[in-house]
Specification:
2 helices; about 10% helix; mainly beta; about 120 residues; eight-stranded mixed sheet; 8 strands; Barwin-like endoglucanases
Length: about 120
C-alpha cells in the first residue's frame, strides 16, 4: 500500500510578494528550495498562519539568496505581504517505508544559515 506523507517543509516564512496578474504558483528562493528538498514544478500546500487559508499549487524557482516567497495568480488573494506561511511538500511511499521516513524540515526564522 502507498500512503501520502510529508516529504518537505519550510516552516514559517514571510510572504514577500503577491502577484495577482500571473498565471499561478508560488515562487520560492532557490536556496530555500534546496534546503527543504523541494524542486521546481513540485506540488505543495501553503498554510497561512495569519488567516488560516490553505491552498495547493506548484513551485517556481525564485532568484537564489533573494528571500522571495511570492504567491502568484489567484493564490495571491489568499495572503498579504508579511503573512507567515508554512510550505509543505508531500510524497507517496510504501506504508512500511513511511514508518521510518524522516522528512526534510527547515526553520528559516530560527536559522542563521538560511534566509529569514
Amino acid at each position: 500500500m502507498q500512503i501520502k506523507v510529508v516529504k518537505s517543509k519550510i516552516h514559517r516564512v514571510s510572504i514577500t510578494q503577491a502577484e495577482l496578474n500571473y498565471i499561478g504558483s508560488i515562487t520560492i528562493d532557490e536556496d530555500l528550495m534546496d534546503a527543504a528538498n523541494i524542486i521546481e514544478g513540485e506540488f505543495v500546500q501553503i498554510v497561512n498562519s495569519n488567516n488560516g487559508e490553505r491552498l495547493e499549487t506548484y513551485v517556481i524557482k525564485g532568484e537564489r539568496s533573494s528571500g522571495t516567497i511570492c504567491l502568484n495568480g489567484p493564490a495571491a488573494r489568499k495572503a498579504e505581504v508579511g503573512d507567515i506561511v508554512i510550505i509543505i511538500g508531500y510524497g507517496y511511499m510504501d506504508f512500511e517505508e513511511a514508518k521510518t521516513f524522516k522528512p526534510t524540515m527547515i526553520f528559516p526564522e530560527t536559522s542563521s544559515n538560511l534566509l529569514t
